[in-house]
Amino acid sequence: MKTIFLASLFGSALLAASPAPAVGLTIAVVAPDAGPLAILGQQVRDGARVAAEANGDTIVEIPEGCDEKDGDGIAKAILSANAVAAVGFLCTEGLSAALPALSEAKVPAITLSVRSGILMEDALKKKWPLFRLAPGPKAEADKAVEVITRDWKSAPFALIDDGTIHARELVEAIRLRLEEVGMKAAFVDTYRPAQEQQLTLVRRLAKTGVTHVFVGGDRTDVAVIARDAAAEKAPLALLGGEALVGADPTVPMTDGVEAIALPDYQSLPAGEPVAKAMLARDIVAEGYVLPAHAAVIALAAAAAEGGDLAEKLAAGRFDTAVGPLAFGADHELSANPYQLLVWKDGAFVPAGTTPESE
Hints:
Rossmann fold
């Protein structure tokens, strides 16, 4: 009786967020099953399998070796399985090589990870049915500019980076976009990363009179800057990018530090019931679990409408465990998945919220 109840509860939670799906789809799940990315591949398989089982669909697991040589093999495996679509693709190499054959067979592919702008440009130009559930290459800067123009309009601010390629390009993109709308940083600089203390940097920032700082750097550096700013009684509001959501640093983060990053979907209203149902099956809904689940739910709902699957996927809006899901004409997510998060009581949470009490 207990088993039947759990199964009923589980199925209800997983299907509540989607319209009546088509039954009997075969969906390929392409993800690493060996090496350092195997743990991420398992997240993809877990999420996709749970969604497929709830819908009565079938999952075909296809290993992804993250090597261009795998492209032909991946495409052949997908087509041999008579899969109507493929999800996963954590690496650019296999996806890029497999797309021509998938396009010819009209099999749409949803990548959960690949962020290459060039690949998506090629896909659009060649009309490959590629959809990206991961953020596009400009999404992080777009969200940062949105937040800064909304919240810092009357505040003197600084833009600093740690000199790495990604951080430098991110800060430069933000600077140029802000200047286009008449917001010029009072201080722009590159700091020396991985230091035990950043007192000199904090004092330089304070001397310029800025009150808000966007930091293109990693979590540990931002934690050090926040700690030293508090010690110097320098009222600096710090905002960083996705790099702030990483492994726990040796220096604790200070409450109030903000980050532009993807939220923890399992803690959001759409994801929480699905995550709880998964936990009953000893599946922790972290990483790619809920995005993979969402991709399969969207495919099933699109297929239920009949007709060309890629066209229905491009035109539809689907309720999923990661929230409403829709793609634009460029096959990117129509809504920027990045959110403004704030560090509160040991975790980054969406701004304006507090962690759920245990």
